[in-house]
Design a protein that fits this description.
The structure holds two protein chains of two kinds. Chain A is of the alpha+beta class. In chain A, 51% of the residues lie in helices and 17% in strands. The chains are: A alpha+beta, B mainly alpha.
Chain lengths: 100, 195
């Protein structure tokens, strides 16, 4: 099957899509949680979080939790809108409308 | 996940989304602490009040309810410490926490406006407690807690029409049906279940 190059390039990558899928279903999640669920390496996850943050899709805040720094991530309104558009596009690709 | 730039087919994308949403679940274990803590505390206070009233000449048996004040601090401290250790916050967690904070505020206001009729507060407290209990049961998708809330409404009615002795025993019985039984069931279930 042909890969979909037309879809939002910021979301159409495996790890970034995984991060966004987690963040859309929770209020907020920290770096450790995202790393455990996506099974990504810390370096890779960090790079992808930065890309999503620069795109305005997520907010990242740092605090000092249980004697260790905690990086908390939350999806933004823009991120939520883009994710919903991405899912709609996917549905159209998978189930294209029959020709008139 | 190794290659973050790997292009995916539509099916692969949907598979990633579904897998991650299914993984984003939270253990139920923590919720049982508050149910058991409050279940036992209110059970002890209400039964002590009843026994003091029936078996002694003590003039103000309702003083036992002052034990609730340190209980609020213990419960809030536990929630705060656990919250700081938490790696994820779901929308369900927020609804659960705020339903109980709303109940706490309502209770404080209720005790202030009702301070001259302390002997009949039990049934009203059960009516108020039924709401966050029901919300928690729905949010946690945990049926025994929903039935616990229903038991609060039924016992409040029985307390109203049942006379002094039945009314005095209503609260300890309600704690067993509404908090303790669901709390122990939730603790057993929580170790291997998620929301």
């Amino acid at each position: 099957m042909t890969p979909f190059r037309e879809l939002d390039p910021l979301l159409h990558s495996q790890l970034r899509l995984a991060i966004m899928s987690i963040l859309i279903s929770v209020d907020r999640a920290d770096f450790t949680y995202l790393r455990d669920k996506t099974e990504a390496t810390a370096g890779n996850l960090s790079v992808q979080l930065t890309k999503l943050k620069e795109g305005g899709y997520i907010e990242v805040s740092k605090s000092f939790g249980e004697s260790y720094p905690q990086t908390m991530c939350r999806i933004t309104t823009l991120g939520r809108t883009r994710f919903e558009e991405y899912v709609k596009s996917l549905e159209q690709y998978i189930k294209p409308e029959p020709p008139q | 996940m190794e290659n973050e730039e790997k292009l995916m087919t539509g099916e692969e994308s949907l598979k990633v989304i579904t897998a991650m949403i299914n993984k984003s679940r939270v253990s139920l274990t923590q919720s049982s602490f508050h149910l058991l803590f409050w279940g036992w505390l209110i059970f002890a206070c209400s039964l002590s009040e009843f026994l003091l009233w029936r078996l002694t000449d003590y003039a103000t048996p309702w003083y036992v309810w002052f034990f609730v004040i340190p209980g609020v601090f213990i419960s809030m401290t536990y929630g705060f410490v656990k919250g700081r250790k938490q790696h994820v916050f779901t929308y369900a967690t927020g609804i659960y926490v705020w339903a109980w904070i709303a109940f706490l505020f309502s209770s404080v206001v209720f005790f202030i406006v009702h301070s001259d009729h302390m002997e009949s507060v039990g049934k009203y407290m059960l009516l108020m407690a039924a709401m966050p209990t029901l919300i928690s049961g729905i949010v946690l998708k945990f049926r025994p807690l929903i039935w616990g809330a229903v038991s609060f409404w039924v016992i409040a009615l029985i307390a109203h029409f049942g006379g002094n002795i039945i009314s005095g025993l209503a609260m300890p019985v309600a704690m067993i049906t509404g908090y303790l039984i669901p709390g122990y069931l939730l603790r057993t279930k929580g170790s291997h279940d998620t929301i």
